[in-house]
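Lab notebook: predicted structure, single chain.

Context: the supervisor wants predicted structures on file for every construct in the current expression panel, including those that have not yet been purified. This is the next one on the list. No modifications to the sequence; it matches the entry in the shared construct table.
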Amino acid sequence: MPQVVTANHLLEGDVIYLTTDRTWTRHLTEAAPVTGDDADALLAFAEAQAGSVVGAYLAEVELVDGKPAPTHFREAFRTRGPSNYFHGKQAESADV
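Prediction complete. Output recorded below exactly as produced.
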């Protein structure tokens, strides 16, 4: 099963994902789906960025129309942004 590397931005707290060019995005659909050794290497890259990200881990995804989509409730919940009030990703799109 493919996975993506996810973490939280250290200063802003936003959920972020690593892309194929090893930059961070706030959108799961832009994340790099990886497997096996590629997943381990991408996670190691993320963990080495302790000055800008926190809590990096691999999350399983499924590919829907070639783009990563969450397979677990926790990851689906994280894509919606903070749950304490209506702002950020929640304000941008009510259908997420």
